[in-house]
Amino acid sequence: MGQIIAKILSIIGIDLRPKNLSDDHRDRNPSPAPRWIFRNLTKSPFCVTSAVGIGFFVAGGVLACSLSIFDRIPRNPAEEAAGFVASFERHYAAGAEAKPNFLPVGFSEAKRLAAVHRRLLFAYFHNPKRDPYLTIFCKECLCSPAVAAYLNGNFVCWGGNIRATDVRNRILPPRSIFPLCIVFQVDANQSLWILRKIEGPLPPQTMLCILQRMVRLHSAAIPDSEYPPDRREIENFLRCFLFFMRSRVSSTLDLLGGFIS
């Protein structure tokens, strides 16, 4: 193995054989090889650049791993929502005539409030890295007086960054187009139904028409009971089906037991 390594190093121009060293000197200095290796390695530009490249590669991998671990640390959803609201008001709503009253709470709490007040839930997903229309949409559409007044009067409004804990782990639909807003319906059991995905930059008039249509069609459709009627029917059907299957399996096992005995 050592001869193979020496041959490879000699091909690229590194000679590990000691020069002009006597046996006495070898006895006094029994391990000069590491110094020769270092001296010859520093003389070869190929080896120097390779070593530097490997060092940068390892450092980059360690840094990326550290950042990914840090990004997965769970954070307080209420603090994230409050930070988003403060950032939105500072960057987009400053000087505007009106603005949506985004709740500084986590998405779970906003869902509970929508169920308690029997309102539709309007959620805005903020994506500063992949949304080229971010500033225009926030200032001209969400902060327009007509849209903001209608949102505040008819919806429970929630907004958050797509990297927030509640958004990343639960509700963000895949392959979404930004800007992205979603209108949810929440029943008394806090179950979610997506009524409308509003994707892409829209003028205020179009956004207002969509919101009015959602309220007209779905605002009064939230039942007072714990479950919607259609959900109760589905659960009753599944319960009867499971009881029927259990009875059939039991009778089949009894029949097989009779044949075996």
TrEMBL record:
The keyword Zinc does not apply. It comes from the Eukaryota. This is UAS domain-containing protein. InterPro entries: FAF1_2-like_UAS, Thioredoxin-like_sf, UAS, UBX_domain-protein. Keywords: Membrane, Transmembrane, Transmembrane helix. GO terms for cellular component: endoplasmic reticulum. One of its GO terms (biological process) is ERAD pathway. The chain crosses the membrane at residues 46-70. One of its GO terms (molecular function) is ubiquitin binding. Residues 83-212 form the UAS domain.
